[in-house]
Amino acid sequence: MVSFAQVAPIVSALKWNDEGLIPAIVQDAENGDVLMMAWMDEAAVRDTLATGQTHFYSRSRRCHWHKGATSGHVQHVESIWLDCDGDVILIKARQIGGACHEGYRSCFFRRAGQSGEFERAGEPVFDAAKVYGAAGGAGSGSTENLKEPNHA
Amino acid sequence: MVSFAQVAPIVSALKWNDEGLIPAIVQDAENGDVLMMAWMDEAAVRDTLATGQTHFYSRSRRCHWHKGATSGHVQHVESIWLDCDGDVILIKARQIGGACHEGYRSCFFRRAGQSGEFERAGEPVFDAAKVYGAAGGAGSGSTENLKEPNHA
Lengths: 152, 152
What we know:
Two copies of one chain form a homodimer. Chain A has four helices and eight strands; from the N terminus they run αββαββββββαα. By secondary structure, chain A is α+β, with helices and mostly antiparallel strands. Chain A is globular, with a radius of gyration of 16 Å. In chain A, strands 2-1-6-5 form a four-stranded mixed beta sheet, covered by helices on one side. Chain A has a two-stranded antiparallel ribbon with strand order 3-4. The longest helix of chain A has 10 residues, at 42-51. Chains A and B meet through helix 1, strand 1, strand 2, strand 5 and strand 7 of A and helix 1, strand 1, strand 2, strand 5 and strand 7 of B.
């Protein structure tokens, strides 16, 4: 897990959008796969820095979520990068289980095929119905389940 | 370069934000590095699909830009991926030169250090002042130069 002597310089370097948010790309520190993109507000950035695990802000539900709080599929932060404009964060993280609420390692599991249709590539790494509840992504009562589909 | 028999299925699968835009992450197809994140509107997606090179929409300048139009540092699309929510695109591309208008291969060239300050990691791969003009990123008259710093 990363640790920082001071959080303030990181927070002050970030450029927030009109909603006070910044997009955060999470990349698998082990194999380089892009796992997901979600949004952070300042509190989510601070929680991520304080705990060494990713936290985000759900725009649709207007609340914070700790990635993996329900599923155990947390993301251990290994390094934090900022783009040239200062308005996008890249987090390299060690992903436990899978990042995607549909059971895949990465949320980007659909690839545009020759026909122009998006096709599933690869297989799920866990059973989403078991992990998030029998109702799957449609409101099982799992806090994380309800939040993760709205991560962007 | 990728080619698609039909563009309509790809375009119709995308979920646009209130501004009619979708974030597009570009990943280096050779080494997996995340190169940049920028925004696309429908026209940019169509231009990207039609030409096999990335096109974006600049929110700050309210105009389209063809990545590499000035610098020659185009991105040849190898594959297009969509996340589970359908609202973020991942493009794996073969990057010519560097993606960043500051001369780096990736726009994510600053890493948060132990002190909490973002520090430059690695070296530029081209001379931004030469490629974009002597004024660097501060308005040299290069169309791309003026647009690229505003890519997010």
